[in-house]
Amino acid sequence: xxxxxxxxxxxxxxxxxxxxxxxxxxxxxxxxxxxxxxxxxxxxxxxxxxxxxxxxxxxxxxxxxxxxxxxxxxxxxxxxxxxxxxxxxxxxxxxxxxxxxxxxxxxxxxxxxxxxxxxxxxxxxxxxxxxxxxxxxxxxxxxxxxxxxxxxxxxxxxxxxxxxxxxxxxxxxxxxxxxxxx
Length: 182
Description:
Structural class: mainly alpha
Number of strands: 2
Order of helices and strands: HHHHEEHH
Low-confidence stretches: none
Radius of gyration: 21 Å
Oligomer: single chain
Helix content: 25-40%
Strand order of the largest sheet: 1-2
Distance between the termini: 54 Å
C-alpha cells in the first residue's frame, strides 16, 4: 500500500496546479468577454497568431551587397538548439513571413492557400514542422493563449467572438447587417 501512496505523492508533487488552471480555464461568455477586454490579442485569427509567433523570436536585419535582408530567428529553431534550423533561404522565408503578415492584416491573401513548393531537400517539410511545433509551444505560452468553446464539438474555434451578433444587427436576414468573418 505504501508504494501506491508514494507513487501518487510523487505524481502530485510534479503537478503545477496553477498552470493547469490557467491552461484549462472555463468560464461563461461574459467572463470570456472580460478576458478579451483585458487582453484583446486573444481574439487573433490564425494568421495573426502565426505571424506573432514568428515575430516573438525576433528578427535581425543585415546587408547583402546593397540589399537589406531580414533573418527571422524562429527559423533558427532556438527551442531545439538548431536541430531543424533552415539555412540559406532568408529571402524565401522573408516572403513567407510577409505572406503571413499580409494575411494577418487582412490584405486579401488570407483567402488563399499558401503552398510550399521546391525541389527535394529544400526544407519544405522542415518549415512546416517548425511552424507546427512553434504554434504548439506558442499556444502554451500566455501570449499565445487560445480559447475554445466547451459546448461546441470542435477542436478549435478561430474566434469565439464570431458567435456574438454584430453591433446593430438584429435580424440575421437583414441585407444591411454588417458581415462577421468566421
